[in-house]
Amino acid sequence: MAKGNKRYGIGIDLGGTKILAGVVDLESGKVLASARKKTHAERGAKAIAERLNDLAHEALDGAKVASNGSIAGIGIGAAGQLDRKHGVVLASPNLPFENFPLAEGLQKEFDLPVTLANDVEAAANGELFHGAGKGCSLFVCVFVGTGIGGGIVQDSKLYRGASGTGGELGHMTVVAGGRICPCGSRGCLEAYASRTAMTHAIAAEVKRGRPSVVKAELEADAGVLRSGMIADAINHAKDELVTQVVQESAEYLAYGLASIINFYNPQKIILGGGVIEAMDLIFEHATKRAKEIALPTPARTVEFARAALGDNAGMVGAATLTAVVAG
User: Fold this and answer.
1) pLDDT, tens only, 201-255
2) C-alpha to C-alpha distance for 282 and 228, rounded to whole angstroms
3) Domain ranges of the chain
């Protein structure tokens, strides 16, 4: 059981591929225990909500912390458009939610306040308090995984915009009339530089007959390539096709980052997510090219950094957000 006056939060990072839940020390950002499952978005919204309950219980059991008293609340970082006040996911490109009351089930299950935030907004909050954004008052987080999301920090606080949807960096247009994006628009950054986009591009070339070491994985796992598989194909197999696709995706990401530099003039851009964690190539190429593409003055002052919390950024940030709300 918890000792002294320590306060903890339950943080849940809900992504298109995986769900990660953990119990976090709100003062230090330390993760006491965590649990992970695949999202299985194809099973529907209710099944995902049940998985959130199961994972929160598993994390609490592992941390040996009571669910009352020392727990400030539960934070969820979920990809999509949100009604934060009512804990509802209005729509999500990579999750089967439409006007779904995601917070409701956890509130009933644990009798704790539940805070809902965008997934990368939550990650930005984690980096602000406990990671690469600590001590920086003006920065942007860009996380590249199943999709691409963003979080904006201004004056050391999360900035959400007039309608609460600020930070949808994956849906800035990089190619007019380009590829269809899961959001329904065309030419979005997410349609060119996310792991999903890379997988689709690789699969299309393999179908056309180009050789690649990932052909078997594409056939075995319903056309899905994990970030680690793509990284192995580059680093160990020196796969020409995969390397080419990743370099092209990194170039598109660079244009997106350059646009952020020009428009927002941040002190720092923090990159994270499974793709960035797994592949040095995309981080190094995108950040180098972004400085070359952007206007000289903001390009000289911006600093690039990897997310210090790694895969835990969204989970820690979601938990920390409960402290902000609870006071």
Assistant:
1) 999 999 999 999 999 988 886 778 999 999 999 999 999 999 999 999 999 999 9
2) 13
3) 8-127+312-326, 132-307
pTM to 2 decimal places: 0.88
Q: What is the CATH number of domain 8-127+312-326?
A: 3.30.420.40
What is the rounded CA–CA span in Å between residue 80 and residue 165?
9
Residues 6+ apart with CB under 8 A from 87: 101, 102, 103, 104, 107, 114, 116
> pLDDT for 7-48, tens place per residue?
899 999 998 888 999 999 999 999 999 999 999 888 999 999
**Three-class secondary structure of residue 135 per DSSP:** coil
CB-CB contact of 66 with 26 (8 Å): no
In angstroms, the CA 84 to CA 267 distance is: 28
Sign of CA dihedral 265, 80, 314, 157: positive
Does the 132-307 domain belong in CATH 3.30.420.40? yes
Contacts of residue 104, defined as CB under 8 A and 6 or more positions apart, other chains included, come to 87
Q: Name the residue type at position 220.
A: A
Q: What is the mean pLDDT of residues 81-88?
A: 90
Provide the CB-side half-sphere exposure for 243 (13 A, CA). 9
Q: Residues 6 or more apart from 57 whose CB is under 8 A from it?
A: none
Same fold, 8-127+312-326 and 132-307: yes
Strand partners, 14: 19, 78
